[in-house]
Structure prediction request, 53 residues.
Amino acid sequence: MTVRTEESWSGAPVEARRTEMEQVLRQSLDAWLAALKARAEAVAGAAASAERH
Prediction:
């Protein structure tokens, strides 16, 4: 499975704190992708377990 994300923030608050905002955005995306991966692996594991029984 391939997942692609794209997100951007803009505006005066972002421009004023660009480095900090980039870090916050990256952390948010990393957390979301980790949760997505964990859920996909759990579902796949449950499906594989059901097939064996």
